[in-house]
């Protein structure tokens, strides 16, 4: 067996590794991915993420999506799938939309393949009103993604919105705007979370002192009291 | 089963997806399905009159005869141009390129290193003033079709069966050397014959020459007729070696001096240490603004640069003096040493240079390199 990313022959170290591990990635490649349990709220909806979107992750995702390397599908949820199955028991996964032309070219829906190991029912109810990729648009256009529900789809009560990564969050926002939060229980799961989104995460109380400190260092203004916020004009 | 693009036959790299079998060895260049034959790309026809060329200085007799022979042989067989460093390999193949362009055939020029691509484009654009010469490499991929295409070996995946003549410069350099994927891609990019240009052919090429499938043409003399600079080898511990290095740097003050070191870490150390005595630059594969550093080094004319083997090939700095620190390091092989020594004395204005190898222990490779250059010099003399 070879590592799916670096072609090195797989060697396991340690008792667990030699006996049980069947990770398709080698230990070095896996180490570069930054595993972190990320709990935050997106537009008031609980969001859970498992990896920080760093260079190694983005490289792998590009190889999977753009180079159409289907073999990488089980890599993303390796070791997490079982956990997710229990966490979201009873939910139905709603996939974020992908352009129809791209799916036809790939021959598979990349999110569906990626999330299959969770063992939850999967639905693909959304479609984009304009079929252009995110990269072709300007930053201000990206914000205004408009989605619509496909015809004849009945949404279940418990919904899990799932995506591979969250960058600006505009696709998720558009999807949320289509759903009635009073009628459905909604959760969001993204495999990775971008650093810009992570920065928006509300800090714990003990982080506030650090934030104050760094802010005051930058502005050279005296801060009165340890936990006071700065008043801007 | 065989991958139509990278010619891989190892079954462990094949994977069956929802669309059928595909090859994972060359997956970074997008998926190649096994059943589908790679279609030839359609490129625009070569402009008329693009075959006219003018060299900046006339070729010597020896160069002329090799260039003519090459233009003839490349029509029916692959050619290996085995020339010493600085013999003007690019000028030797211009005749062949011109002959193909005149017939309206596509010519590609592939080099493993990105920096050399840009440098070479400038030169070839001067030689072929009427042709549209383009460079295709990382960061320059907006335009991919011209009369004469110069690209890195990685970019050859864009040109399936596109070239009637493919010239591979320095095929023994990283990353082309030892990479099956790049070898395969180079094979699919070419529908005619190939010309390899190198000063240090590897074992594989030597085997092909023995076998008879590769025609070898050799040139031992540089155009200015002066012998190749032969390295002096000094063996001593690092501390004394460093003193010698400082003395050597002082001797050649006023000329550009390059200090090659084996690793990136060593390059940073060396640049820091030398900067205690004189301003010193550092250039490694990790340097983000390599092009700018090299540009400054060239313009300065009396600078010192500590570099790794990124600058080992395809770089011409007029009147450069070369020192190799730790020449006995495992990282340098004989080809690398020959190439580094070949950075000295490359221009007409400064045909001589000084090369110094500093080692800690006896290194058979350093002595082999010295011997190889001496032999080449002896051959050159016997021909004249």
Description:
The complex is a heterodimer of chains A (233) and B (384). Chain A has 233 residues and is of the alpha/beta class. Chain A is globular and about 50 Å long. In chain A, the strands form two sheets. In chain A, strands 1-2-8-7-3-4 form a six-stranded mixed beta sheet. Chain A has a two-stranded antiparallel sheet with strand order 5-6. By secondary structure, chain B is α/β, with parallel strands linked by helices. Chain B folds into three domains: 38 residues, no CATH class; 159 residues, 3-Layer(aba) Sandwich (Rossmann fold); 140 residues, Rossmann fold (3-Layer(aba) Sandwich). In chain B, 32% of the residues lie in helices and 20% in strands. In chain B, the strands form three sheets. Chain B has a seven-stranded parallel beta sheet, with helices on both faces. At the A-B interface, loops of A face loops of B.
Write a compact overview of the structure shown:
The complex is a heterodimer of chains A (233) and B (384). In chain A, 35% of the residues lie in helices and 20% in strands. Chain A has 233 residues and is α/β, with parallel strands linked by helices.
Percent helix range of chain A: 25-40%
Work out the radius of gyration of chain B.
Answer: 22 Å
Round the mean pLDDT of chain B to the nearest integer and report it: 88
CATH architecture of the largest domain in chain B: 3-Layer(aba) Sandwich
Largest sheet descriptor of chain A? 6 strands, mixed
- Mean pLDDT across all amino acids of chain A: 83
Class of secondary structure makeup of chain A = alpha/beta
Strands of the biggest beta sheet of chain A: in what spatial order?
1-2-8-7-3-4
Please provide the count of β strands of chain A. Answer: 8
- Derived from helix and strand composition plus strand pairing, the structural class of chain B reads alpha/beta
Strand content of chain A: 15-25%
Return the CATH topology of the largest domain in chain A: Rossmann fold
Report strand % of chain B. 15-25%
Oligomer: heterodimer
**Integer-rounded radius of gyration of chain A:** 20 Å
Q: What is the overall shape of chain A?
A: globular
Give the biggest sheet of chain B. 7 strands, parallel
Tell me how many strands of chain B there are.
16
Dominant shape of chain B? globular
What are the segments of chain B in which pLDDT stays under 50 over at least 5 consecutive residues?
none
* Annotation field: number of helices of chain A: 11
């Amino acid at each position: 067996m070879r590592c799916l990313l670096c072609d090195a022959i797989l060697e396991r170290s340690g008792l667990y590794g030699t006996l049980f591990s069947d990770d398709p990635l080698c230990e070095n490649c896996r180490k570069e991915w930054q595993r972190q349990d990320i709990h935050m709220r997106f537009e008031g909806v609980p969001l859970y993420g498992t990896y920080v979107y760093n260079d190694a992750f983005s490289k792998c995702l590009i190889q999977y999506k753009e180079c159409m390397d289907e073999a990488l599908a089980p890599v993303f949820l390796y070791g997490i799938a079982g956990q997710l199955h229990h966490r979201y028991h009873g939910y139905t996964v709603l996939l974020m939309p992908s352009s129809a032309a791209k799916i036809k070219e790939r021959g598979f829906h990349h999110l569906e393949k990626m999330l299959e190991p969770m063992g939850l029912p999967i639905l693909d109810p959304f479609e984009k009103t304009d079929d252009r990729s995110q990269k072709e648009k300007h930053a201000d256009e990206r914000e205004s993604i408009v989605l619509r529900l496909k015809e004849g789809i009945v949404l279940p009560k418990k919904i899990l919105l799932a995506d591979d990564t969250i960058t600006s969050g505009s696709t998720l926002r558009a999807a949320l705007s289509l759903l009635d939060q009073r009628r459905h229980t909604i959760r969001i799961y993204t495999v990775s979370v971008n650093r810009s989104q992570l920065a928006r995460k509300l800090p714990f109380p003990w982080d506030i002192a650090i934030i104050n400190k760094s802010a005051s260092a930058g502005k050279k203004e005296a801060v009165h009291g340890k936990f006071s916020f700065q008043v801007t004009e | 089963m065989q991958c139509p693009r990278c010619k891989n036959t190892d079954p462990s790299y094949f994977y069956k997806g929802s669309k059928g079998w595909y090859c994972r060895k060359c997956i970074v260049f997008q998926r190649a399905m096994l059943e589908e034959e790679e279609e030839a790309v359609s490129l625009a026809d070569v402009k008329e009159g693009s075959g006219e060329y003018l060299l900046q200085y006339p070729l010597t007799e020896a160069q002329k005869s090799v260039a003519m022979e090459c233009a003839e042989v490349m029509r029916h067989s692959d050619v290996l141009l085995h020339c010493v460093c600085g013999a003007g390999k690019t000028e030797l193949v211009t005749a062949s390129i011109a002959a193909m362009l005149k017939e309206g055939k596509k010519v590609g020029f592939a080099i493993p290193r990105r920096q050399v691509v840009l440098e070479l484009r400038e030169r070839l654009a001067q030689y072929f003033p009427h042709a549209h010469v383009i460079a295709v490499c990382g960061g320059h991929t907006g335009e991919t079709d011209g009369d004469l295409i110069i690209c890195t070996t990685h970019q050859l995946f864009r040109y399936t069966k596109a070239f009637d003549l493919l010239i591979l410069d320095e095929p023994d350099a990283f990353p082309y050397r030892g990479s099956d994927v790049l070898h395969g891609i180079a094979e699919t990019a070419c529908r005619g014959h190939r010309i390899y240009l190198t000063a240090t052919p590897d074992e594989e090429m030597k085997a092909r020459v023995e076998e008879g499938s590769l025609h070898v043409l050799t040139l031992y003399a540089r155009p200015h007729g002066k012998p190749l600079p032969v390295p002096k080898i000094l063996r001593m511990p690092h501390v004394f070696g460093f003193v010698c290095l400082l003395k050597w740097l002082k001797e050649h003050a006023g000329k550009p001096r390059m200090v090659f070191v084996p690793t990136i870490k060593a390059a940073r150390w060396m640049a820091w240490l030398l900067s205690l005595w004189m301003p010193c630059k550092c250039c490694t594969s990790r340097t983000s603004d390599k092009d700018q550093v090299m540009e400054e080094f060239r313009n300065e004319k009396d600078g010192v640069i500590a570099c790794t083997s990124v600058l080992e090939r395809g770089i011409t700095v007029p009147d450069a003096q070369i020192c190799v620190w730790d020449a006995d390091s495992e990282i340098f092989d004989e080809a690398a040493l020959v190439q580094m020594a070949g950075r000295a004395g490359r221009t007409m204005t400064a045909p001589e240079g000084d090369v110094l190898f500093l080692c800690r222990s006896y290194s058979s490779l350093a002595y082999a390199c010295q011997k190889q250059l001496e032999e080449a010099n002896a051959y050159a003399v016997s021909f004249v």
